[in-house]
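CORE FACILITY INTAKE
Project code: CF-77B
Contact: R.S. (postdoc)
Sample description: multi-component assembly, two entities in total
Requested service: structural model of the whole complex
Turnaround: standard
Below are the sequence entries exactly as provided by the requester. Do not edit them.
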Amino acid sequence: AQSVSQHNHHVILSEAASLELGCNYSYGGTVNLFWYVQYPGQHLQLLLKYFSGDPLVKGIKGFEAEFIKSKFSFNLRKPSVQWSDTAEYFCAANTGTASKLTFGTGTRLQVTL
Amino acid sequence: DAGVTQSPTHLIKTRGQQVTLRCSPKSGHDTVSWYQQALGQGPQFIFQYYEEEERQRGNFPDRFSGHQFPNYSSELNVNALLLGDSALYLCASSLLGPPGANVLTFGAGSRLTVL
């Protein structure tokens, strides 16, 4: 079955620390990968996406993610987090032209001053 | 502004009742998907509508049904509510096309509490 796993459920970092959130997927064939962010009280917003090409994808607000096919991973990174990055982060995947997304359980990031 | 509008934002129902949630997609989008997000979980796909027909369906019982109207807006109906149906219901719209164009825009959600 298709699945997405996020192993970090709750991460606490100080401002300016580096961030890496893990995401692994279990999919056959071509996979499209996404990271969404949900700030407190707000809707899900797309951070970045990977469909094909350069496996290092840059998104909004200084986030990037690297697609490593051999590891079935799509980890999210940011060199220096800010207090405003406090939010819940979801990795998601789909295949082909189907837009049905399978989400991970999410990682709650708390950035302290 | 998400571009996707959902109503109502909050509602409380009792077990056995029925509920209808509504969604207006982002301008220019023709496809609407519904997701259920239980507390502490990621969104789970319920179904997707395109050209007024159900195009894909997730692992949800027939108590969950939907509709898409000619103006692309959509409704989600849940019958015989159970306590476990308490969740945030998210609507997402997109433009049906090749993978590079197929990105979902989410609404803020309708929070359903079943007592």
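Facility notes:
- The two ends of chain A are 41 Å apart (CA to CA).
- Chain A is about 0% helix and 55% strand.
Invoice: internal transfer
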